[in-house]
Give the backbone structure.
Amino acid sequence: MKDALVIIPALNEERSVANVIDSILSAASDVDIVVISDGSTDRTATVARKAGAFVIELPVNLGIGGAMQTGYRFARDNGYAFAVQIDADGQHDPADLPKLLAHARNGEADMILGSRYIEKTAYRSSRSRRVGMLLLAVLVRLAVGYPIKDTTSGYRVVNRRVIELFSTSYPYDYPEVEVLVLLHRHKLRVLEVPVEMKERQAGSSSITMFKSAYYMLKVSLAILLEVLRGRRVEKGARL
Amino acid sequence: MSIYILGILFSIAFLVAVMDLMRRRLLLEQYSLFWLGMAIVILLLSIFHDSLNRMAAAVGIIYAPSLLFLVGFLFMLGTMLHLTVVLSRLTTRTVRLTQEVAILRAELEQREVVAHRDPYEKLGEEVAR
């Protein structure tokens, strides 16, 4: 068994999931891959198995948070030292994975964040999107006390301590930003490392105008709540 | 039939409905006690309907039914808040169970594949890696 597990949450991604698995396996041979099929109705699970991943099929759709956490629980139960989170739509380049893993294995931080903004990369986005990202970055900065530029990046490598934390507490939806404050609250460190970000291979972004407003509201509230919870042990209705 | 009698009949019907749900075990005990209390309060209020007038007068409310509306509204608000807390807890538990079942089933299926490896079994390819 390898020491790192790549977790790929997938909902009806039969067209792109095999490509992602192939490119991960060719870029980093020292990882296992688990695909969490979040109640997919297409052939995602079969395709992923054929491509060489271990597949966990959720009997009902749990949403991104519940699916990701399934992967973290699997990683915890099977003793993995590191877990990698990567999108199944092909936006993240697995060629960066060895670099991110190396930072994690060196113990430079508890979470290594693949960031689009630290250096000049080919990534471009719309103005309203950039304004939103900036706002989130400011909020997170206020909450954790140090700058994190690319707060919404879903390309992440975490160590054992974070795997154990996520197994018991992980946000239901839009987890990326909230998690950063959650980690800070548990005195875990985040390190940003520049990565190349590609245009998505299939489908378009699911975020519309109304959804963006809801997203900003939800995430801001989540950050506020995380700050209010303070740095103490919690018990309550989280995942 | 006066509204007075109608109120009492309605309260009794409500009480009977609650007890029937309890009898058929469709209400958990912790909630059935709550609804039983509610039904009894409603019944008492409709029998001694003058008590409402006196309570309203005591707190300076001129139109007595508004006291009923106020108390009822606050009560419903509290109940609904409590129910969403319960619902959230149930959601958390359902999610946790779903995750556990999915992981267990995936591991079980893999074990079965290893135990009797069958060349015609598609899953075999996955284990052979």
The longest strand of chain A covers residues 4-10.
